[in-house]
Design brief:
Helix content is about 45%, strand content about 10%. The protein contains 13 helices and nine strands. Helix 6 packs across helix 8, helix 8 runs antiparallel to helix 9 and helix 8 packs parallel to helix 13. The structure holds the ligand Cc1ccnc(-n2c(S)nc3sc(C)c(C)c3c2=O)c1 and fe (iii) ion. The ligand Cc1ccnc(-n2c(S)nc3sc(C)c(C)c3c2=O)c1 binds next to helix 6 and helix 9.
């Protein structure tokens, strides 16, 4: 039976807090791991005071953003647009031979409907409206890195927390963290695909109220799919992970004979360690997004959460089922 909003009382005391309706995502805003302008010393923009100030200016928008509001547009500078254009040109040249068919199918629509091109950086609000039309996914501006729990919880509501700042102009082809190029070229095209949207939401639903250990396992599964996923396409393999599709070097490397390629089995993937500052030594191949979704659902059922959840798209809220 369905346990309503009051159902929180029905859950075991030890259940970690999780959002029950879309507006609850507003509570994540102040919980960002670092404000975004405290850049690591090895960050390309660490010594550039005006870059750090620009980051703070852009991330302030995310701090005040509330559910239901349009995402404010950023008046990007010529230097920022040139950085974007360099990344756009380099990567779009590789998509025909390295990106999965789902990415290639939607890219022309992004050019047509969202102004993707070298002359301007697409605005998140325009892109979010497009995604809403395609799969119900929406974007939400984020100041910097959310915790894995908060970030994955957002996916349960088909909400993707997206950065709005861009990497430092001194290194257009490298970034130690997500930036708007990574989101627009890597993540957005796949969230326009219904099967990938279902798959991503599956991970999000599994993360609601999950134990810290299960959050770690689900974040690792996220890492080897949404970020660094490879899929089978006929007799070839292609990239669908955003970290691959937005990184010129790693997009080349991931389809070469250098990395090890394994089958996507969530229980095994969840145990895999991954470096985030160099290319992955191992990638996992999904047979299809539907197949990957079913495997994640199976994996989620084997987790030690004493209840299961369902998303009600009419009320944009979570329903608790068979709370054991
Ligand atoms: C699970 C989770 C929670 C928050 N952010 C992420 N996340 C995402 S989506 N993309 C990137 S690209 C990059 C270079 C890094 C470090 C990174 C990242 O950390 C992942
Ligand atoms: Fe990412």
């Amino acid at each position: 039976h369905i346990v309503g909003a009051a159902g929180a009382g029905e859950l075991p005391e030890s259940t970690p807090w999780f959002p029950r309706k879309m507006v609850d995502l507003d509570t994540f805003a102040d919980k960002v791991l670092e404000m975004g302008e405290e850049l690591d010393s090895d960050h390309p923009g660490a010594k550039d005071a005006s870059y750090r100030a620009r980051r703070a200016e852009i991330t302030m928008i995310a701090k005040t953003y509330k559910t239901g509001q349009p995402i404010p547009n950023i008046d990007y500078t010529q230097v920022e647009i040139e950085t974007w254009a360099a990344v756009f040109d380099k990567l779009t040249g590789m998509f025909p031979t390295h990106a999965c068919r789902e990415h290639q199918h939607v890219f022309p629509l992004l050019i047509q409907n969202c102004g993707y091109g070298t002359h301007a950086i697409p605005q998140l609000e325009v892109v979010s409206k497009f995604l809403k039309d395609c799969t119900g996914f929406t974007l939400r501006p984020v100041m910097g890195l959310l915790t894995s729990r908060d970030f994955l919880n957002g996916l349960a509501f088909r909400v993707f927390h997206s950065t709005q700042y861009i990497r430092h102009h001194s290194s257009p082809l490298y970034t130690p963290e997500p930036d708007v190029c990574h989101e627009l070229l890597g993540h957005v095209p796949l969230f326009a695909n219904p099967d990938f949207a279902d798959f991503s939401q599956e991970i999000g639903l599994a993360s609601l109220g999950a134990s810290d250990e299960d959050i770690e396992r689900l974040a690792t599964i996220y890492w080897f799919t949404v970020e660094f996923g490879i899929c089978r396409q006929g007799d070839q393999i292609r990239a669908y992970g955003a970290g691959l599709l937005s990184s010129f070097g790693e997009l080349e490397y991931c389809l070469s004979d250098k990395p090890e390629i394994r089958a996507f089995e969530p229980a095994k993937v969840a145990q895999q360690k991954y470096p985030i500052t160099e290319y992955q030594p191992v990638y996992f191949v999904a047979e299809s997004f539907k197949d990957a979704q079913m495997r994640v659902r199976e994996f989620a059922n084997s987790c030690d959460r004493p209840f299961s959840v369902r998303y009600n798209a009419y009320t944009e809220s979570i329903e608790i089922l068979d709370s054991k």
